[in-house]
Each structure stands twice: as C-alpha cells, then as structure tokens.
Design brief:
606 residues, alpha/beta, 21 helices, 10 strands, 64% helix, binds adenosine-5'-triphosphate
Length: 606
C-alpha cells in the first residue's frame, strides 16, 4: 500500500527482485510457442513490420534532407531548390505519419485478435479444468491470468516489440547515413554515445535502488500507521502508555523516508547534469573535427549541411540506443507474461472425455458403486471400499457424521473427481467410459449450497432447460412447492433474485433449485440435503416438494431429516469413509449402533 509519504519512482528499465526470481528461462521452445500465435496473422505481421520500417526510415528522412536544404538551398541562395526540398521534406513527413497510422491499425488489429484467440483458448481450457483445480486455485489468480496477463500480451505486441523494431530501424538508417557521409565523424560521434548511455544506466540503477529502499520504508510507515492509528491499536497504545514509543518509531521511519527522498531527488539532478554535459560533447566534437577537416585540410567532400545532418542524427540516436539497452528487461517481462499464460495452458485436463466415449440410446438410471476408494490427497484416504446399488425407481439415503465422506460420494457420480480405486457403474457401464455430457445431462444434482445467478427466477430456471415453456416451468415449480410463492410476487417469474439469489430465503432458494432439477427430468436425482436449519414451515414446504420426487424417481440422498430417511428404500450409514451399517430404519434403530446414536442425537430433533 502506498500512502501519502512522498513515495516516488517507477519500474524503469530494471527488474524487481520478484521479477528476477520469476524470470523464465528463454528457450527456443518458448520463443517458438510465442511466435506460433502470430502465425495465423502472418500477412498482417508482414504489413506491420514493413510499415514500421518504412515509417521509421521516412521519419529520419527529413533530418537527412536538412543537409541539402542548407547546402543547395540556403548556402547557394537558390529559392526554387529550397522550396522544393522543404516541400519534399514535408511530403515525406506526412507520408511517414500516414504509414504509421496504417502500422498502428494493423498492430492493434493483430494484437486484439491474438488476445481474443488466447482468451477464448484459456476460457475453454479453464472450463475443462477439474473441480479440484477450482477448489485449490486462488480465484484472483485465475481472473488475473484471464484479464491482465493476456491484456499484457496485447501491450507487448503493440508497445514493446513495435518500439524495438522502430528503434532498430531508426538507428540503422542514422548509422548508415552517418557512415556514408563521413566515417571519421560518424565514429567520433558514436564513440561518445556510450559516454552518455553508461552514466545514464548507472544513475538509473542507483535511482532504482533508492526507489526500492524507499518503497520498503513506505510500507513500514504504512504498517505503523495502520497498527497505531486504528481503533484497536490506539486503544492498546493508550492502555499500555506506549504513545511516546510509537511516536519515536514513527518519527524514525519518517526520517529515513525523508533522507531517501532527498537522495532520490539529488540522484535525479546529477542525472540531468550528466545528460546535459554528455549530450553536448558529441555535437561539439563533430563540429570541431568537421571544422578542422574543412578549414585546415580543405576537405571538399564534407559540407556544412553534412555536419548539421550528422549532429542532428546523433541527437536522434540517444533515445533508440537507450531503449535498446533495455531490451533484455523488456524481453524478460514479455516472456514472463507468456510463460504465466502457457503455464495455465499446460495444466493437464484431469477429467476428460474418453476418446471412445459411449452415448447410450437410453438411460435407466441403475447406479452401482463397486469397492470404490477415493482420496483427495494420497496420504489421506477418504472413501474405503464403498459398495452399494441403486435400482431404477428406488431411493437410497446416506447418513453419517460430519466429514464421513457423504458429499464426496456424490461428487464422484457426475465425475467432479474420478475414483482412485474400484469403479462406479451406470446401467452397467463404467462412468469413465461414458460421454461426460451424456453422464451429466442425465444426473440432476441438488447441492447443499444452492447456487442461483443474478437474473430473474425464469432465467435461473431456464438454465436447466433453455427451451422450457411457461407451462412446463409452472408445472415444475408447482411440484417443487414454490409456484404459489412466485405467483404472489409483484413481478412473478420476472423477479430478479439478486447476487447468488440473496433476495430469496434459504428455503425458497432450495425449492427453486428443486424446481430447476424437476424441469430437467434427469434419470437419476442426487440430493445433498441442506443441514442449515429452516423454520418448520419452510421445512414442511421442502419436505412436501421432495417426497413425491423421491417416490417416483431413482434417487440418492444425503439425508439429515428423519422424514427423508424414512421414505428411502435403503439407508447406508457411512463413517470415516466406510459403510458401517445398512438396512431400513427399523432394523438400524434396533441395532443400537451409530445409526441409533445419530437418530437419538440429530434426527429426532429435525
Ligand atoms: P458434511 O456432512 O459435514 O458435509 P461429509 O460427510 O459430506 O460431511 P465430505 O465433504 O465428503 O464429508 O468430506 C470428507 C472428508 O474429505 C473431510 O475430512 C474433508 O475435510 C475432506 N475433503 C472434502 N473436500 C476436500 C477437498 N476438496 N480436498 C481435500 N479434502 C477434502
């Protein structure tokens, strides 16, 4: 965080420690991969490169023409030639600028299209990422790669690489012209360039170091302010009478900051002195040696115009030379950007469609777990040899203490994760052999945490079946016991539900998500019954919605409510990833095991 403590300075042509540590290895493979994104746009690339070169060359041309303006126009006092040359110079300048418009357009077009391709590729790749990836990755990191990293590529293409090419072209033209006019003067002029560049680099580096140091102190100051001027910090320092100590600490940090700010400003002053001196040495030397050549040695090849052009060209070289010296830093930054993007592209797709995936004609909904084992982390087994069957039209309830692995069982069925041992069969086929979309289309999952997006009730329902008619929607909502509520709203089905459905109550959200599943008519329904306590009216409404569904469909329920459990055909008791008891309610209660305990402690209350 930067506060109002006079922190100054930017990244400049130097890398931060973090950038240095994270700088990728520049390999041929990485380069090839970067350029592979340009290949589809090779025509635009050629136009853009040519336009950059031509506009840079034309941009230097008027400077070169100055020589002829002086020699042929002014010194020879020839007005028509003078006007012609000025006109030519002006024309070339206009042309150079027109070409640079073309160059900007092609470049922006190309960069936008490349980032468009990259964003799409990244989005569809991320869509294929497993549930594990989204549970483990930081949300912010995913968004950053999608937005600013790919956005950064765009500025690399339109900014960094363009300016490298431009500077290179300008420098080449300037050098060739200077050497053609006078190799001696050119060499003298160029020898001075490092004299100017090297101190600039050194001073720049020193400023950068001070900036880093000052950034650190600035953070320290902010830290002190946050700690001591906050409500609790103030209270603490008052009660412990540490005001003086805190003041001294703040003053000390502030002193350091001031010292650094002065240092940084002075480094800037010296910097300017250095620039002024060295930028003038080059031209002076050219004038001196040029003058000696003409005056003392009567050199007739060299004209006043030539000398003027040399001085002007030398002045134009500093900028490009300086930027080209930063090439390494620019390269590392661009590579790091691409590297971060490629890192995501290279993430393997954990749950993928089998190349010979099956899409059976029909779906009966017979589910079987055969000695299924599973772990999220290899050293922490979650499920251990879980076997059960769910016949079409019947229902199975899973109960067990918190953390037993109930939700995990559910996650395995739509293949949010793949089993690590055993197999899961649907209608006798291993679910890993089934087409993923087919599998997921035929399973309806009502999760504990109901997710509704910020849209209308109708839009949220249509997400399950985009072509559903109003009659179908209303039918599903009636079955889910929510139609009467929706009809009573001023805007009915067009009511906006708010972020994550926050404008609805917990019970309403659950019933809406049940309606969403009914609309979908899946062959197998999976309920993760919410544990959140609802009032008895909401409970009742949900119960009324669930029971008929359970009665007529094939369903697997993680049950917390006694009434749901009672309507199941079989109850599985899960503990520490193992099925420890199974049977119907009566048998299990009599057994006096875990089920009896769960029944006495939890279910009786609900
Ligand atoms: P509850 O009734 O509280 O929802 P549950 O029986 O559904 O519990 P699960 O959610 O299946 O339990 O979790 C089983 C175990 O797996 C827990 O110990 C949990 O910490 C662990 N676990 C769940 N999800 C992950 C994950 N994504 N990565 C690592 N461990 C996980």
């Amino acid at each position: 965080m930067m506060g109002g403590n006079g922190f100054k300075g930017g990244r400049g042509g130097f890398l931060t420690e973090e950038e240095k540590q994270n700088s990728p290895k520049i390999t041929l493979r990485l380069l090839k991969r970067m350029f592979s994104y340009l290949v589809p746009y090779w025509k635009q690339l050629i136009v853009s490169v040519l336009a950059i070169i031509i506009s840079s060359v034309f941009g230097v041309f008027p400077t070169i023409l100055t020589g002829r303006i002086i020699d042929e126009g002014l010194l020879e006092q020839n007005l028509p030639v003078l006007i012609r040359l000025i006109g030519l110079s002006f024309g070339v300048l206009i042309l150079a600028n027109l070409i640079s418009v073309l160059e900007s357009y092609t470049n922006v077009w190309m960069a936008e299209n490349i980032t468009f391709d990259m964003r799409n590729k990244m989005y569809s790749h991320l869509q294929r990422m497993s549930h594990r990836f989204f549970t483990t990755s930081k949300q912010g990191d995913i968004i950053t790669r999608m937005t600013s990293d790919i956005g950064g590529v765009q500025s690399v293409l339109t900014g960094t690489w363009t300016s490298i090419l431009q500077n290179f072209a300008t420098l080449t033209v300037a050098l060739v012209t200077m050497y053609t006019k006078s190799p001696l003067l050119a060499t003298i002029g160029i020898v001075v360039v490092p004299l100017f560049i090297l101190p600039t680099k050194r001073v720049g580096k020193r400023r950068w170091e001070i900036t880093l140091e000052s950034r650190k102190h600035n953070d320290d100051i902010n830290q002190i302010l946050n700690e001591t001027l906050s409500l609790s910090g103030q209270l603490l320092s008052k009660l412990f009478v540490t005001e003086n100590y805190e003041f001294d600490r703040y003053q000390e940090a502030n002193k350091q900051m001031i010292r650094l700010n002065i240092k940084e400003s002075m480094a800037g002053k010296w910097f300017r002195v250095v620039i002024n001196v060295f930028t003038n040495i080059g031209p002076m030397l050219i004038y001196l040696v040029g003058g000696i050549l003409i005056i003392e040695y009567g050199n007739t090849d060299l004209t006043i115009g030539d000398i003027t052009v040399m001085v002007a060209l030398l002045g134009r070289m500093y900028g490009p030379v300086n930027s080209l010296l930063n090439i390494q830093v620019d390269m590392i930054r661009s590579m790091a950007l691409f590297d971060r993007i490629f890192e995501y592209f290279d993430l393997p797709v954990e749950i993928d469609n089998d190349p010979q995936a099956l899409r059976p004609e029909s779906f009966a909904g017979e589910l079987a777990f055969e000695e299924v084992s599973f772990h999220y982390d290899p050293d922490q087994p979650i499920l251990n040899n879980v076997s059960f069957e769910l016949k079409p039209g019947s229902s199975v309830a899973i109960v067990g203490p918190s953390g037993a692995g109930k939700s995990t069982i559910i996650n395995l069925i739509p293949r949010l994760y793949d089993v690590t041992g055993g197999r899961i069969l649907l209608d006798g086929v291993d679910i890993r052999k089934l087409d993923l979309a087919f599998l997921r289309q035929h399973i309806g999952v009502v999760t504990q945490d109901t997710y509704l997006f910020n849209g209308t009730i109708r839009e949220n329902l249509l997400y399950a079946k985009p072509d559903a008619t109003q009659a179908e929607i209303e039918q599903a909502c009636s079955e889910a016991n929510i139609h009467a509520f929706i009809s009573g709203l001023p805007k009915g089905y067009d009511t906006v539900v708010g972020n994550r459905g926050m404008k609805l109550s917990g019970g309403e959200k659950q019933r809406l998500s049940i309606a969403r599943i009914i609309l979908r008519k899946p062959g197998l329904i999976i309920f993760d019954e919410a544990t959140s306590s609802l009032d008895s009216i909401s409970e009742h409404a949900i119960q009324e919605a669930i029971e008929p569904i359970l009665a007529k469909s094939t369903s697997l329920i993680i049950a917390h409510r006694l009434s749901t459990i009672l309507s199941a055909d079989e109850i599985l008791v899960l503990e520490k990833g193992k099925i420890v008891e199974r049977g119907d309610h009566e048998t299990l209660v009599k057994k006096g095991g875990i089920y009896t305990m769960l029944y006495n402690t939890q279910m009786k209350q609900t």
